[in-house]
Amino acid sequence: MTTSSTQVIILYFSRGGATQRLADAIAEGVTAAGGEALLRTVNSDADAASARDMVIERDELTRCDALLLGSPTRFGHMASALQKFWESTSNDWLKGVLINKPGAVFTSTSSLHGGQETTLLSLALPLLHHGMLLTGVPYSQPSVHGRDGGGSPYGASFLNDRTSLTSSEQQTAFALGRRVCQIATACRHATIED
Ligand SMILES: Cc1cc2nc3c(=O)[nH]c(=O)nc-3n(C[C@H](O)[C@H](O)[C@H](O)COP(=O)(O)O)c2cc1C
């Protein structure tokens, strides 16, 4: 890395804006930890909420220090636009450009038991295949104990039955961004042998 601040990509898709709210809360956490939050999306319809942000450029995977991946839950799984993106990263996988970089995941659903955890795990899979260091939210974060919406040790989440995040959802997303950035900053100065 040639830049001085820790570069954290927040790569997400959001049609209606719910997942985007989580992405923005995560970005606040990254910034609070002294990092630079790079909100990025993938090719999709121009009227998707996430079209607000730039489409990720391939060399950004190489240049970043960490990456968070977020999607609305689609039948218990990540949205196809994101899956399509990861299926285009074979060359990056061969080069190992994400190996030993912290990664984390986030999602939103319209129903409480509609698959937040399965989607979070589906989002984790490509990050693990790319050799990333999967980061969750520990139970030392009080908001993970919340009983009124999203947020879990697997990642940040939002129960989209209202217009804004609950306080717990906001705090968990913020904590995840802050934690990933702090770990990424530490990893930049660490030597991890194969
Ligand atoms: C094709 C499709 C499949 C969906 N599947 C689920 C689901 O399995 N569980 C659920 O709770 N919500 C499901 N939803 C609802 C979205 O996950 C939810 O509205 C989400 O908050 C939208 O996020 P966005 O505003 O970022 O696009 C689905 C929506 C669509 C369009």
UniProtKB/TrEMBL annotation:
<dbReference type="GO" id="GO:0003955">
    <property type="term" value="F:NAD(P)H dehydrogenase (quinone) activity"/>
</dbReference>
<dbReference type="GO" id="GO:0009055">
    <property type="term" value="F:electron transfer activity"/>
</dbReference>
<dbReference type="GO" id="GO:0016020">
    <property type="term" value="C:membrane"/>
</dbReference>
<dbReference type="Pfam" id="PF03358">
    <property type="entry name" value="FMN_red"/>
</dbReference>
<dbReference type="InterPro" id="IPR029039">
    <property type="entry name" value="Flavoprotein-like_sf"/>
</dbReference>
<dbReference type="InterPro" id="IPR005025">
    <property type="entry name" value="FMN_Rdtase-like_dom"/>
</dbReference>
<dbReference type="InterPro" id="IPR001226">
    <property type="entry name" value="Flavodoxin_CS"/>
</dbReference>
<keyword id="KW-0288">FMN</keyword>
<dbReference type="InterPro" id="IPR008254">
    <property type="entry name" value="Flavodoxin/NO_synth"/>
</dbReference>
<feature type="domain" description="Flavodoxin-like">
    <location>
        <begin position="8"/>
        <end position="181"/>
    </location>
</feature>
<keyword id="KW-0285">Flavoprotein</keyword>
<dbReference type="GO" id="GO:0010181">
    <property type="term" value="F:FMN binding"/>
</dbReference>
<protein>
    <submittedName>
        <fullName>Transcriptional regulator</fullName>
    </submittedName>
</protein>
